[in-house]
Write a structure and sequence with these properties.
It is built from four helices and no strands. The protein is mostly helical. Helix 3 (39-46) crosses helix 4.
Length: 65
């Protein structure tokens, strides 16, 4: 299931801050949804697998939709 969030970055940032309680998840969501980084790049930065990052991004998108 693909989640496309078509909102201005300011609205995405507001929703991330409001609905995502984990600082780690907020950081990952910002890197993907606002900065547009690839899963591979994010995984390298936060030292996690791309599969983990993919799951986190999907969860975050559901939270802010």
């Amino acid at each position: 299931m693909k989640h496309n969030i078509e909102l201005p970055n300011s609205e995405i940032e507001q929703r991330i801050s409001e609905y995502i309680h984990s600082e780690k998840y907020r950081r990952i969501a910002r890197m993907k949804l606002i900065d547009g980084l690839t899963l591979e790049c994010i995984a390298e930065v936060v030292e996690m697998s791309t599969a983990q990052i993919s799951r986190i991004v999907k969860q975050c998108k559901k939270m802010i939709e």
